[in-house]
Design goal:
This protein has about 475 residues and is an alpha+beta fold. Helices cover about 65% and strands about 10% of the residues. The protein has 15 helices and seven strands. It has a five-stranded mixed beta sheet, sandwiched between helices. The longest helix has about 80 residues. It is rod-shaped.
Length: about 475
C-alpha cells in the first residue's frame, strides 16, 4: 500500500465509523421512539454527529464527547418524543457499551501486534500491515459494540422502566462507573516517558485480561440491574393489582350487604302494611279523613328510601350498575343500560363485577372532564357461549395507546397507573377473552369479550362478534 493510499484510507476510515456510531445510537433509540420513528432517529443521529464535530473542531478536554452527547440527547428529548430520564439513561448505556467494547478491542489489538510483530520491510508493507490492524481493531470493536447494544435493547424492550429521579440515579451508577473506568484506562494505555513510548499492557501484562474482563462485567452488571428493576416493577404492579382487586371485592361485598339490608327493610315494610291498612281503614270508617291523609303522608315519607334499583339478574352486578346510575344522576350524566347477567353461563359474578366496576368508573371519570352532552351507555349481550360487555361514553381528543395496548394516563400515582383497565384485561383473560379499546373521535368504546369457562377457544366466534 502506497503512502497516498494509506492517507486516503485514514481520511475515509474515521468519518465512516463515526457515521456508523451515529446510526447505532439511532437504532438503539428506535424501539422507544413514537411513530413515525424516522424523525426521532434522524435527530438522534445528528446529535451524535454534532457532538463529534464539536469535540474535533474545538479545543475541548479529552472525554468531552460523552457529556456533550448526553446534554444534546436530553435537550432534544422533546422533539425526539421521549422522556428526558429515558433519553439520559439510553445515552448513558450507549456510551458505556461503546467504551466497554473499545477496551476489549484494545486488548485484542495488542495481542494481534504481539502475534504479528513488526519487521523492517518495504514501506508499502508497513502501510498495509497498519491498515489491516486498524481494520481488525474497528471490526472487532463494532461487532462487540453491536452485540452489547442488541442485548441491552432486547432487555429494555421486555418491560418499559419507570425512571423517576431516584430510580434513574441508582440505575445510572453501573454505566457511569463503566464510563469513568474506561476513560481512566484509556488515558493509561499509552504513555511517553523519557522519549520512549510505553504501553500499559507491556508494563502490566496482567491487565491484558483484567481490563476486558472488568469492561464486560460492567456491561453484564447493567443488564442484570435492568432485569432486576423490571422484575421488581412487575412484582410491585402485581401486588398493587392484587390490592386493588381485594379493595374492589370488599366494596362489592359492602354494597351487597346494603342491598340485603334494603330487601330486609322491604320485607319488614310488607309485613307492616297490613297494620297500616287496618289503621287507614279505621280512620276512613270514622270519617277522620284528614288524619287518614296525614297517616298516608307519613307512610309515604317512611317509604321514600325504597327506590327501585336496576335489576340485571345478579346481586353483584345489580349493586355495581345501580351505584353508577346513582352517581350519574347526581352529576347530571345520562345513563343507559341494557345489561343482563348471563343466566346459566359459567361466569363468576365477582369477575363480572370487577369488569363492570372498572369500565364504568373509567367512563364516569371521562364524562366528569367533558363539557356538553355527557352520557354512559352499558350493554351486555350473549351469543352461544360468548358474552360481550360494551361501555360507551363521549370522547374528545386523541387516543394514545402505550406498549401494553392501554391508554396513557395522567394520574399522579405511578403505582396505580393504568391498573383499572389492566385489571379488566386480567379478568377477561380468565375466560380466554380480550379487551378492545377504540374511538371514532367522538365516542370512546371499551369492549370485553368473554367465553364460558370449560369451553374450548373458538376464533370463529370471536370474529363473528367483531363483525
Amino acid at each position: 500500500m502506497s503512502s497516498e493510499s494509506f492517507q486516503l484510507f485514514s481520511s475515509s476510515f474515521v468519518p465512516a465509523f463515526q457515521l456508523f456510531y451515529a446510526l447505532a445510537l439511532a437504532c438503539f433509540f428506535r424501539p422507544f421512539l413514537p411513530q413515525p420513528r424516522i424523525k426521532g432517529m434522524a435527530i438522534v443521529s445528528l446529535a451524535y454527529l454534532a457532538a463529534f464535530f464539536l469535540c474535533n473542531g474545538f479545543p475541548v478536554p479529552r472525554g468531552a464527547l460523552g457529556p456533550l452527547l448526553l446534554a444534546l440527547t436530553v435537550g432534544l428529548s422533546k422533539p425526539v418524543g421521549i422522556a428526558r430520564p429515558l433519553a439520559f439513561f439510553l445515552t448513558l448505556l450507549y456510551l458505556s457499551a461503546k467504551i466497554s467494547a473499545g477496551l476489549v478491542a484494545e486488548s485484542l489489538y495488542f495481542l494481534a501486534e504481539q502475534l504479528f510483530p513488526f519487521h523492517p520491510e518495504p514501506i508499502e508493507g508497513v502501510y498495509l500491515r497498519a491498515a489491516w490492524l486498524i481494520t481488525a481493531f474497528f471490526l472487532s470493536h463494532l461487532s462487540l459494540f453491536s452485540l452489547l447494544l442488541w442485548l441491552l435493547a432486547r432487555q429494555l424492550k421486555r418491560r418499559r422502566l419507570s425512571l423517576h429521579r431516584r430510580e434513574l440515579c441508582y440505575m445510572s451508577l453501573i454505566p457511569a462507573a463503566s464510563i469513568l473506568f474506561g476513560q481512566m484506562v484509556s488515558s493509561l494505555l499509552l504513555e511517553v516517558k523519557d522519549g520512549v513510548l510505553l504501553q500499559l499492557y507491556e508494563r502490566h501484562p496482567a491487565f491484558l485480561g483484567v481490563v476486558p474482563a472488568l469492561a464486560l462485567l460492567f456491561s453484564l452488571g447493567s443488564l442484570l440491574a435492568i432485569s432486576f428493576r423490571q422484575s421488581l416493577e412487575a412484582l410491585l404492579e402485581e401486588r398493587e393489582s392484587s390490592f386493588v382487586q381485594r379493595q374492589q371485592a370488599a366494596a362489592i361485598r359492602d354494597r351487597i350487604q346494603e342491598v340485603e339490608e334494603f330487601y330486609t327493610r322491604v320485607r319488614e315494610m310488607k309485613h307492616q302494611l297490613r297494620g297500616h291498612l287496618t289503621a287507614i281503614r279505621g280512620l276512613a270508617q270514622r270519617g277522620e279523613y284528614r288524619q287518614a291523609e296525614q297517616y298516608i303522608a307519613r307512610m309515604d315519607e317512611s317509604m321514600s328510601g325504597f327506590e327501585r334499583t336496576l335489576q340485571t339478574g345478579s346481586a353483584v352486578t345489580d349493586v355495581i350498575v345501580d351505584s353508577l346510575r346513582r352517581q350519574c344522576q347526581e352529576q347530571g350524566i345520562g345513563f343507559y343500560s341494557e345489561f343482563h347477567y348471563p343466566s346459566g353461563g359459567r361466569y363468576d359474578a365477582f369477575d363480572l363485577g370487577i369488569i363492570l366496576h372498572n369500565l364504568l368508573q373509567n367512563a364516569l371519570e371521562a364524562c366528569q372532564n367533558l363539557a356538553g352532552e355527557r352520557y354512559i351507555s352499558l350493554a351486555g349481550r350473549r351469543q352461544g357461549r360468548f358474552f360481550l360487555i360494551e361501555v360507551q361514553n363521549p370522547f374528545a381528543g386523541q387516543l394514545v395507546l402505550g406498549e401494553n395496548g392501554l391508554p396513557s394516563t395522567t394520574k399522579e400515582d405511578a403505582l396505580l397507573h393504568g391498573l383499572g383497565l389492566s385489571q379488566v384485561r386480567r379478568e377477561a383473560e380468565k375466560y380466554t377473552g380480550e379487551l378492545e379499546l377504540k374511538t371514532d373521535g367522538q365516542i370512546f368504546c371499551a369492549t370485553v369479550l368473554l367465553q364460558e369457562q370449560g369451553k374450548q377457544n373458538s376464533n370463529t366466534g370471536k370474529e363473528e362478534w367483531k363483525r
